[in-house]
Design goal:
alpha/beta; 5 helices; 16% helix; 345 residues; five-stranded antiparallel beta sheet; single chain; elongated; ten-stranded mixed beta sheet
């Protein structure tokens, strides 16, 4: 066995009536775990190596608490001790290697590694995760298997209560699991677990961020960050704009946005942007779109498909108001985010 494991988390799980995991909440997941902590896991639990999900009882938690103290991992030792008071099942998920997840507990650990900023988008293997997750009603009484919802609602009504259903989805909202430091979110329901919001990011009320996607630093997000899309430091997504993720037909092109870019209001991209690029308001640049390229003097030098410009820096995409043609010009200005907006993040 290796002297190091990829990640592990002590969590509180929720199961359906069949005993399947609906979700697991990991308050302090760890990555790149040192040998002393690995030894503590091996000597105090039934863990025998590999990727494993265990349910711990009080005696397991007592042993784990003492072993983690001995290993010098005070934070995880205190967490193990505190979790003894839980009325919900306690889960220990250990990922010796970063491979495709095999159960919901592993999926939730990986998504929370991203939202805790321990892993960047595309930094962990999530292949096949949709088939592992159970469609869940996220309610005022916690997660409920959607197949069990009607019975729970009837029981609640008989007791004079109403269960409020916030969403029915395989993914919960991020803020119910983690709120990273230095961010602002106008509407928490629009940020899914597995989003990565960098320090200094503001997501306004109509902004959206999907899983395995997000920002790497100061960004103003009033548009849509689709699955897999990463936005660089200092970039601005205008109101109503969108980015085409791999789930929306992005194909093989890795769609991302570099640093100090501006995607204007109601605009969109189906290609990647390098640094200091601008897409004018209302213009959607798709990969197969013909683009007339002009040099810094405004001279026509080529007509190409937009995919050939993907990832290049210092470009300005506009639609010619007279001809209707989409043009790409050298971007002579770089945007600067309003620093006052991020002063107290």
């Amino acid at each position: 066995m290796s002297d190091q494991i990829f990640a592990f988390g002590l969590g509180i799980g929720t199961q359906n009536k069949e005993g399947n995991w609906l979700e697991v909440f990991y308050s302090a997941p760890c990555i790149d775990v040192e040998k002393s902590t690995l030894d503590a896991l091996l000597e105090s639990t039934n863990y025998e190596g590999g990727n494993s999900t265990l349910v711990l009882d009080d005696s397991d938690l007592n042993r784990l608490h003492m072993s983690l103290l001995k290993a010098g991992n005070i934070e995880q030792a205190e967490l193990a001790s505190r979790l003894k008071a839980s009325s919900q099942p306690i889960v220990l998920c250990i990922l010796a290697t970063d491979e495709a997840p095999t159960n919901p507990a592993e999926v939730y650990l990986k998504l929370q590694l991203i939202s805790h900023r321990l892993v960047k988008p595309h930094g962990t293997v999530l292949d096949g995760m949709f088939g592992l997750l159970i469609n869940t009603a996220w309610t005022s009484e916690g997660p409920i298997d959607v197949r069990e919802l009607a019975d729970r609602q009837l029981t609640a009504r008989m007791q004079g209560r109403t269960i409020e259903v916030f969403s029915v989805d395989k993914f919960p909202k991020m803020a119910n699991f983690v709120v990273p430091s230095g961010i602002r979110i106008g509407n928490a329901a629009r940020i899914r677990l597995g989003a990565h919001l960098g320090e200094g990011t503001t997501v306004m009320h109509e902004g959206f961020c999907n899983f395995n996607a997000g920002t790497l630093g100061n960004s103003m997000v009033e548009g849509r960050i689709s699955a897999g899309v990463v936005v660089g430091e200092g970039s601005d997504l205008g109101a109503g704009c969108s980015t085409m993720g791999t789930l929306s037909g992005g194909g093989n092109i890795v769609i991302g946005i570099g640093e100090k870019c501006l995607v204007g209001a109601n605009a969109g991209i189906g290609i990647g942007l390098g640094d200091r690029c601008t897409v004018e308001a209302g213009l959607y640049v798709t990969a197969g779109q013909k683009v007339l390229v002009r040099d810094s003097n405004g001279e026509h030098v080529a007509t190409v498909k937009a995919r050939e410009l993907s990832g290049k820096s210092d470009l300005l995409f506009i639609r010619n108001s007279e001809t209707g043609a989409v043009e790409c010009r050298t971007n002579k200005t770089a945007i600067a985010l309003n620093e006052e907006l991020h002063t107290h993040n």
